[in-house]
Fold each of these.
Amino acid sequence: MLKSVLAALFVAVVSTGAVAQEFQFEAPPLFDNCGDPSLAKAKTEGVTLGFSPSPPYSSLDPATKQATGLDVELVEAALKWAGVTKFKYEVMPFGQLIPALLAKRIDVVAANIHVTPDRLKAVSFTGPAWWYGPAIVVAKGNPAGITSFDTLKGKKIGAIAGSAADEYLRKIGVAVTAFQTDAEEFSAISTGRVDAILEDDVKVIEFMKANAASPIEIVQNVAIPDELIFKFGYGYARYALRKEDCSLRSAFTQGLAEVRGNGQASSILKKYGLTNRNMFFFPL
């Protein structure tokens, strides 16, 4: 009898493991009386998500017109919790996303974007989604001798135009060579057109995995200035909306908290090779 019960339990466990995990939520959306119509409109008409092509964060299949990537999945999961189920996509260089948002070509900057002083003047942000850190990338052997943020001064440093890296480097007095795309930026450091680039560690690691022969490396053991984390853009990855779209932003923010709380965000991160370490910027 015991053997039969154990066998049945084993089959049940195996069967359960074979089925895609379904995520449940404790709390329902409660935003009906927030005062502005942005959430109601999004639930009825859907939203247009804007992003730049930047694996593993986001990309668009040219054949199917379907968007994929870590940020795309997180954004859609959070918005679906809030009752938004229709999505369109606009792809453009990162530096054009906020102007497109303000011009109402898109409704959400769905490429992960960080809080910076300049951006706060123009847009509002969701609550935290996930986290990654900055990386200084140099040619193999580090011929420019870069060991800290201070040693970037006086050298040719690349960054994506309009990025948190671009804004911070200019603030500390670094002359920045700005690039519109990841491909241009990585080509510049690989061919020696710049001495270093400041980029997201997740993006750099993804590039190095896909291009093992590329002659670049990450500078190790660099102290990260506090203001880079807490003021200039390498705090939590978030998403941006128009300031007037308060009810949509509130619902979106709670949706992010709900998908972090029920394990769905963790599952998405792991799907793209990350871990629960990327849920928080402080050590777990």
Amino acid sequence: MPSDARGVTARRIVLGTQLRKLRENAGISRSDAGYQIRASDSKVSRLELGRVAFKERDVADLLTMYGVSDAEEREQFLEMVRKANEPGWWRRYTDVTPSWFQDFMGMQESAARIHTYELQFVPGLLQTEAYVRAVLTRGRPDYAPADTEKRIHLRMQRQTLITNPNPPRLWAIIDETVIHRPIGGRRVLREQLQFLLEQSKQPHITIQIVPNQLSGYAAEGPFTLLRFAEAELPDVVYIEHLGGAVMLDGVEEIEIFSRALDRLTVDAETPDRSRQMLAKAITEL
């Protein structure tokens, strides 16, 4: 994954936020802005939220309308448009990923901190290839769909996010049942736990295990909280379910999940104790 791909989604959202501030400071409505670029007010809303690609001509017209006439300042905005429109590496996998998951990958690539809580599986960014294959084939590799190998490659490609020279901070909290659930069989689980143990020693990765006696109290399901370095970007919570996924960024919603994370970090064993639990589980396999 190219190192400059991490910021594509973030740049798009930041650019949209800056355009919204310019519009509001100029006292211009979304409808009027939309008319200026031959679009609806709903499209302007999507642009300002960073949910669609930008056209240089549209941004140039909006800058003129908002009173931005300085050539250097205008060029800075247009350069942001060009960078924000760079396709993410995951676009090669659109045939095996739904649009909502592509949105999540874009946000994850842009995050400075990734907090994740898992009850059933090892977090995706920390899975071995054999474990991924067992999960994606539901333990029946002989009946795997034709696109399975491409989906496995996608998940392994995503993991380069935490092996790049400037990785985000990953904080994974895992239920104790995960390290004893024989996904793929004993050999696959042993290899997976050894990999977790190795990764837990990385300076940018923290792994904590919630012991069985405290499981289920702080949160009733898995979720991921993304935090960004850019001040314009709000925290985002990602929750996946059987039929899709939701991403939440409301202040009250983020507060609920932040409190849950705080409780989980307290209930979970310390990173050192969690490593001991992993080592013990490995010897028992």
Amino acid sequence: MERKALGKGIAALIPEKEEGRKNQIHFVQSDQIKPNPFQPREDFDNQSIEELAQSIKEKGVIQPLLVRRKADFYELIAGERRLRAAKLLNLKELPIIVKDAEDRDSLELALIENIQRQGLNPIEEAHAYQHLIDKFHVTQEKISDVLGKSRVTISNTLRLLKLPQEIQEEMKKGRISFAHGRALLEVEDTNQQRRLAQLVITNGLSVRELENLIKSRRFKGVKRRMGTIVRDPLTAVLEEELQHILATKVRISKKKKRGSIQIEFYSQEDLERIMQVIRGSVTP
């Protein structure tokens, strides 16, 4: 499927004087090209770099690197994966296109390239947005306009930086999704966020299951604050454990030697999931 243009794209960021010129391709020594200090990508997958290197070995560097002139060398704007792959092959020369770009343009162009290739994880994306805001005083509206993303999406991505560092690292690794992270932001207590994040990883909770668990805990917190009932500590522990296992709200009512367990579900699908966990047919 052909990918649509992303927002206003690079044309919105490169000075107009550049647009009127033909993009001339030059070949320069690879050691003359230095990495982009504003590169938003924080982690590079070695396997994908090796696969790209194999492709370059067979077909060459099809797309020139985008660079800007800096004193006696060229600074990369976009194309760091290609540069790393080329260095693995010890290529002496690389094709480049030289652009007249300021620091802000360099970051924006690198950000656009990575997002167009769907290469950044949510935390890398959030850091790039925050850097644009802090260093260049770019508004969220401007980022939204340039990248073709809604203002709400930009705002939600930036909010991920409020999560504990451990959770951000798990999001970088892909063990916690953007949607999971957004759900965790609804929890104010950071220790609770960490515990819930661990449940997501350990039990493979879906976003809906996590949201249900958060709702059940919030309701439980309200009941506790009301202070109308003093709970038996052991019962509370067992109740918490069952909620962890079933990923839904569980209520244990105890009266002397008898009692009952109330398990909530939110759809037929959720009920079937809970029954499978109880029967032990799937790993909770």
